[in-house]
Amino acid sequence: MFINVLQEYLKKHKMSNMVAFVDPAIIGAIGCGTVGDRSRTLSIRFKNAQPGQIFLLPYNSANHWTLTAVNPDSQMVYHMDPLKRRIAAEEWIEVVDNAIKLYKDKAKKFLKKKIMWENLAGVPLQNGSKDCGLFVMGYMKEICEDKELKFPEKWLRRSNHAYGITELNAIRIKWAKLSSFSLESFEIFSDSGPSKKLALRLRNSRLAKWENIDSGNSISGYAREFDFGYSTLVIPTLVMPTLVMITLVLPTLVMPTLVITTLVLPTLVIPTLVITTLVMKKS
After folding, report:
1. Each residue of 162-207: pLDDT tens digit?
2. Lower CB count within 10 Å: N or C terminus of the chain?
3. Which strand (E) or helix (H) includes residue 134?
4. Helix H or strand E segment including 80
5. For residue 137, which of 172, 161, 164, 180 has the smallest C-alpha distance?
6. Given this model, what pLDDT does residue 270 score?
7. How many helices (H) and strands (E) does the chain have?
8. Which residues contact 257 (CB under 8 A, 6 or more apart)?
């Protein structure tokens, strides 16, 4: 949802050909396939890249969010980690590098010998243990609001750039407005009636709490509730296979048992009953 807001911002300011996004649900470390699978998926997303366009890739490594910005044409990759200013994991580097190579190969474009990675050590660093997603959202917001896309120069070297409580709470409030109780989600409710009214009350109550949040309470329960973190995108990828198993696979196992119980067993039991009855009558 937050990405949708940024896309609208880019469209409004005529920057859609400068910045694009990749859905984190298709490139994450869990539930998105092998390294090869993710590279192919990413290369397809690069397919319609404009010259000089930057792709923003929010990436979850199973328990932590980072942001990778990729210019597939220039083969330039920028990595932003809100936790330790560290370089990307080898597996993720392989996913991105292979995606660029596949994209260049399919587009018949010249492939340089080396794909360059820059670790942007000057990005604002998180203080809490659960704020990585909020910081990644902040990075994306700053990048999209910079018409000259000078984020590499701004964040290349270690600095004192930081997000204060005010900035983080502003992101949390925006995320809260776009959460499951936002107006855009009311298609699942009736047009009127108690369900919609209840959802509106819950939404307004949550927003009121957020907008009146104590400026010193940076790790509140509301922060955890609306954290753009592990539970937002990764857990569904773990739950869905289970649901598929329950809805599709189990019936194929249960149905033969039901068939045997309802069709085969009667054919065995009824003759036995008939024979028993006749024998008893004779005796």
Report:
1. 777 777 777 777 666 655 444 443 333 333 444 445 545 555 555 5
2. C
3. helix 132-144
4. strand 76-80
5. 172
6. 56
7. 11, 5
8. none
